[in-house]
DNA sequence: ACGATATGAATGAATG
DNA sequence: CATTCATTCATATCGT
């Protein structure tokens, strides 16, 4: 895996209208399942790791999917599932690697953020697009919001029989933002026109 | 084409191939996917066929992987995937063996697979009228299909950027809001963003 | 070398 | 949320 981007996905913002409703000519081109575009994944991860979104509610899902729609066909449920899965797998990974009693759901300390990541060429050096205002409720303590990315559980155990993983720094600013609307206006400005997909992966993985 | 399958590689049963201490330029994480050793496969199958293990949980996975580690490098996820795949493929094989007239199974091609695939619960094929119908009963045809209803994913969100006075999907649930406390009241809706309401499908849901 | 196959890995979609 | 199913991609390995 590493850098080999990969996987299956294209479907740029261009409309592919597969669900057109008509009898898709027997072609099975109509992939039944949503295949996020690179940009969509990027944004989703930003929301997840940077903004700390974990379980968006209906309204948020709508906004998110509306935003992502600029990069490709997408429905609300896709966003919903994406977050569900992403969170679940992050958790799962943790269990498999070492079922460390995941508790200490107290306040995380800044140090947690810096927890080194695994040795990877790509570190999380995301060009923080100046995100500033963040408003996201949904506390998600769990002391570790593993910001590491690539794909879950990937790094092999370094030492023989050793326990590894350093769980990465998270990001999340669970500042209980009650009532205020959603402030997804943070780095709302992604290249609308999508001039050039900066494949600069803050998060290498493909997703 | 009975079972001439499996068992290809061997890989030195001993030795943790890579990741070892010295790591012969093996910094790359999992550059190569896990290739179970013969012993590992044997044990895994014993667990699967004899002990009936199908979906080991976190603890079991760790246990198993710990045991298999004696025979070669392995991670929890490998065990997890192994069972997932093994079960899935066994299931698949069974389908092709039973659901197809036991005759010309001389050599089916992967394309044949695509014949089964039962429908999805909900189809997202027809454009909805935009009406806010709430409970979509759907055709269900397979014994235990859960009935689904419209879920909150697709509930329209008020205006983009607009102040959402009351009602509307003004995301304002406190973080401690368990259960989907969707509260948007359905008062008229408007297509936000994108004037192209392509097939906004009725969503399924799990109550 | 290649192509087919087996299977590891990833992840969307559901269900409970 | 936890679990599981379904699909699909990627690749190790083998047959020819």
TrEMBL record, chains A, B:
Residues 27-93 form the Homeobox domain. The keyword Phosphoprotein does not apply. This is Homeobox domain-containing protein. The lineage of its organism: Eukaryota, Viridiplantae, Streptophyta, Embryophyta, Tracheophyta. Residues 1-29 are annotated as: Disordered. Belongs to the WUS homeobox family. It comes from the Eukaryota. Residues 1-12 have a biased composition (Low complexity). Signal peptide: none annotated. One of its GO terms (molecular function) is DNA binding. Residues 29-94 bind DNA. It comes from Salix brachista.
